[in-house]
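Team,

Forwarding the record for the chain on the shared tracking sheet. I've put the sequence and predicted structure together so nobody has to dig through attachments.
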Amino acid sequence: MDRRPAAGRRVDLELMRTPPPKERADAARNRVKVLDAAAALFARHGVESVTMDAVAAEAGVGKGTLFRRFGDKAGLAVALLNERERELQDAILSGPPPLGPGDGTTTVSPAERLQAFADAYLDYVLDHLSLVRMSETASPGARYRIGAYGFWHRHLTILLDECRDAVSDGEAMAHALLAVLGAEHLTAMVEGVGAERARATVHAFFNVVVP
């Protein structure tokens, strides 16, 4: 277990942010064309109904280019989600409280920041549920190989380690809390009880862990 001061681990968190892609100008333009086309088709027809061939045709690029760049629809989903993930990560690292640390003039408890994370993450996932589900379930263990998972886990671990009276093993508990936020799990909850009850239950679960 990492026993370094929280400040040192926050530096690690900075380094774990989803980086923007580095590419040539022409490659960047093609990337934007493909992602815009995929987003439009997914919104119009649903993620499951859209083929890679359809995305290539809509974007005006060759199928070979599309497959080399993104691999499959799960790769497209990850690429589409990266920008939204970066926005959420920036808010966690430097945004206003309670999601972010603020400018140091306001004291926010770890429990408040945990609940704020749950709410912001639910906003992100529920707004893009089909895409997140695809990116997390493309292959066994896909969710845990996505770079953003490591960021969310580190953030929760840091907050939970600041709640030592309530949580003895922040690292393990962070995995348990993130399991509740898995897209496959949330899809089943939303289909079964609706988004509002699913959101309330996630908050209740977080509150049990750190009152």
